[in-house]
Amino acid sequence: MRFLWPEMLWTLLLVPILLAGYLWLLRRRMRVAAIAPDLSAIRLAQLGRRPFRRHIPPALCLAAITCGLIGSAGPSARVVLPADYMTLILAMDVSRSMLAEDVPPNRIKASQEAVKAFVEGLPKNVRVGLVTFAGTAQRAHGITDNRQDIYEAIDRFQLQRGTATGSGLLMALDMLLPDAGIKLESTVYGWETGGNPVSPDAQRDRASIAGAGGGGPSRADQASGPPGSYRSGAVVLLSDGRRTTGSDPVEAARLAARLGVRVHTVAFGTPEGFIPGFEGLSFYARVDEETLRQMAQVTQGEFFRASNATDLQGIYEHLATRIRLERQDTQIGALFAAAAMALTLLAIGLSLAWFRSMPVRA
Question: Are the beta carbons of 215 and 259 closer than 8 angstroms?
Fold first, then answer.
């Protein structure tokens, strides 16, 4: 549980003070009873055979005060609520390493079938866009709610040399947030291996310029916030190899984090995977798990490891559930206020029913 105004929790010190005051009153009444035993006998007769009941209304009042003080601190908790994702961008690795046959029939075929099943299981209100990356990144299909168009685009994958993981993520971000000011001409199509594709300062300048030119704040300005704060869309990136060209994927993930976009990453393949080559030569295709894990952590997304088609299917099923339900920080101060009110009313009701007086006089 987190608190918006944690300094208000100091007011909880009033609770033991009030408890001490109540105990002092009880001891004072005991002294009075010792001086006037006749009055004490009358009081016990009024209470009947259950004298402990006189402590219940004050205890309820004390609990109500505690709930009210906690509620005044602005408590929040992570609860599971329906997610409001409306757009999902799939970034798929189509490098030649996807020909590896460690996942039968091969990685590309297995991933195509898993992704199509994933898209089919998404809620109908979620639109899907498709990006592929190898030596560079390209839009395989724009954002659409037509599932059949996405299936056909997946079936048209063409494998190429190279693995530009960072460029693929930048392309996905540009598709999700077209007003973010990402200059794909340099960062994706013309960026050399290594380097920072988009510095935070440059990105901030471009977002501001885009907002000024449009007569108002850009979508990037509206989306900017803490990592994972953008609730209208997310990116799911699958790769089976190490980045060999294009933008730095971790820097691209930092840009996604600054825009508040979650990036879920999937490392696909086994350490034994290899690519059939010419003249009987083969090349190992190892997955860069560390980079993919960093990309997910930076953006508050999830990292997954799939070594076979069954694992991949399970991962996409889990992600489909995440699209429907998501843990979110929710203010629960109203619950504490309601509990305080209910406890107060209960204390008053019991006191009137048992003693025909308010709790402070019980």
Answer: no
What's the rounded Cα separation, in Å, for the pair 346 and 251?
A: 57
Contact 96, 160 (CB under 8 A): yes
Q: What share of the chain is helix, strand, coil (3-state, %, to 5)?
A: 50, 20, 30
Which residues touch 285 (CB under 8 Å, ≥6 apart)? 97, 100, 240, 241, 269, 273, 274, 275
Question: For residue range 222-247, what is the model confidence (pLDDT) as tens digits?
Answer: 446 688 788 888 999 999 878 888 88
Instruction: Reduce the DSSP state of residue 22 to 3 states and report it.
Output: helix
| Residue 311 CB burial class (10 angstroms; 0-12, 13-18, ≥19) | middle
Residue-wise pLDDT tens digits, 207-222: 443 333 333 334 444 4
Integer Cα distance of 78 and 95 in angstroms: 39
Please give the Cα distance from 274 to 270 (Å, whole number). Answer: 9
Domains defined for the chain, CATH in brackets: 2-78+332-361 (no CATH), 83-329 (3.40.50.410)
pTM, two decimals, is 0.62
Contact between residue 111 and residue 117 where contact means Cβ atoms under 8 Å apart: no
Task: Assess contact for 96 and 294: CB atoms under 8 A.
Answer: no
The label of the residue with tokens 């007569």 reads 215
